Amino acid sequence: xxxxxxxxxxxxxxxxxxxxxxxxxxxxxxxxxxxxxxxxxxxxxxxxxxxxxxxxxxxxxxxxxxxxxxxxxxxxxxxxxxxxxxxxxxxxxxxxxxxxxxxxxxxxxxxxxxxxxxxxxxxxxxxxxxxxxxxxxxxxxxxxxxxxxxxxxxxxxxxxxxxxxxxxxxxxxxxxxxxxxxxxxxxxxxxxxxxxxxxxxxxxxxxxxxxxxxxxxxxxxxxxxxxxxxxxxxxxxxxxxxxxxxxxxxxxxxxxxxxxxxxxxxxxxxxxxxxxxxxxxxxxxxxxxxxxxxxxxxxxxxxxxxxxxxxxxxxxxxxxxxxxxxxxxxxxxxxxxxxxxxxxxxxxxxxxxxxxxxxxxxxxxxxxxxxxxxxxxxxxxxxxxxxxxxxxxxxxxxxxxxxxxxxxxxxxxxxxxxxxxxxxxxxxxxxxxxxxxxxxxxxxxxxxxxxxxxxxxxxxxxxxxxxxxxxxxxxxxxxxxx
Length: 482
Ligand SMILES: NC(=O)C1=CN([C@@H]2O[C@H](COP(=O)(O)OP(=O)(O)OC[C@H]3O[C@@H](n4cnc5c(N)ncnc54)[C@H](O)[C@@H]3O)[C@@H](O)[C@H]2O)C=CC1
Ligand SMILES: O=C(O)[C@H]1O[C@H](OP(=O)(O)OP(=O)(O)OC[C@H]2O[C@@H](n3ccc(=O)[nH]c3=O)[C@H](O)[C@@H]2O)[C@H](O)[C@@H](O)[C@@H]1O
Fold this sequence. Notes:
With 482 residues, the chain is of the alpha/beta class. It has helices at residues 13-23, 36-42, 54-61, 72-78, 104-116, 133-143, 164-169, 182-195, 209-240, 244-252, 273-286, 290-317, 345-355, 369-377, 408-412, 432-437, 454-460, 473-476, and strands spanning 3-7, 28-32, 66-69, 81-84, 121-125, 150-154, 174-178, 204-208, 326-330, 359-363, 402-404, 417-420, 444-447, 463-466.
């Protein structure tokens, strides 16, 4: 029986391993983590992450061939294949701070593997890492290996949160990079055999190590670049009277461009796009390619611009001040169907409004009150470090300005404005007449996700701002918004 151990029971490690266990009944899978609470949750009825379909998969395999444990060393020692799926956040201090990937967690996992191994193993990079990381990991493993043989593979993950199970069941591709030696090719084959139990062969791509590592960073950069491109267009649409929905539809109809990832928004969020592009920028700079670095940096700059533009639009529309005004924030997660708030644009928008002394009433169906307060107190780049590993953040001086409530109606009651930050389905079907009746007048809606029907809301009486759509007369003569 093949034994797999995955270090890191997070958004990637948990769902990925659960699906491997489901699809490969003859493989034994142990997912290990140093975070005891997280492991306890994986072993309970309330899993530590919200992901449609995940509960069902875990229930089918847990205790049979899927185990969650804090006995990291024991399971690593027993495994034939060790996946490393720990976090690789942006460095907050020292060389490359604010850009380079922080490989502290990766390196300590690699050293531990070297220390506890008594038999040869395949070590799989599942985390997103800078190109050439495998070389460093190889050095750590081989210098400590007491003659034990390690083969390193790069097998980056392409799942998106909210659709993780669907993406894992039916991936566009599985990418496996390895050494071009006979041993490297054998290792590739061993991992390929696992995926081939449910993924068609022509979707399993094999490459050299560096291509696999770089393809992951490139794929995220290309995806984020599409969003920044359409968001840049959204600003021009607002200035000219074009409608970004019509423009992206027309552009996406070109089969060379395609329709996906062209939804204008308040900005992209999530734990990876920004971090991976910053990492790419850093690698380009380190390789003497400043023009290439500058090119990719623009994707982040436009994303920041889009979030700033949104805040400025809110403030400018409401007579250039939101001081002491209640603003309802609907949605806090970085996208629908997840409770994940890492790098969510809602954080930047809320901080912007708080900076203008607004009073915020926040509702999200999946994000806890505690999480929202933590997020608004954390400094940039601290968010992706596991809480148990990061320094205690100072308590938020803005806590008094923020209340977290249990539904959208309560959030909007008595508010001057309402901002939609996440495209949760339930925000499409709210009783907006009821909301209007309970708000201050004039009542504003700022739709950061283009989910509401602006015309219907205008008929009710709202002043509506939708990203990239023709502006209400009220908003047209406002001061510059960038
Ligand atoms: N979140 C996502 O949708 C995707 C993430 N990725 C990449 O996958 C990697 C992991 O991301 P997430 O799962 O989101 O992170 P996460 O923060 O949810 O999970 C990482 C886990 O690793 C654990 N950990 C850290 N050091 C450890 C050690 N030495 N021993 C045992 N456990 C340790 C942490 O306690 C944490 O629970 C990152 O490199 C990310 O860029 C790739 C594709 C999608
Ligand atoms: O490496 C990763 O972590 C993952 O990053 C993204 O997945 P994820 O961040 O979970 O979610 P996305 O669906 O890509 O959305 C990212 C952000 O972009 C925004 N977005 C997405 C699409 C769009 O058209 N417009 C737009 O604003 C979303 O609202 C969200 O805030 C990629 O889609 C995955 O392939 C990748 O594995």
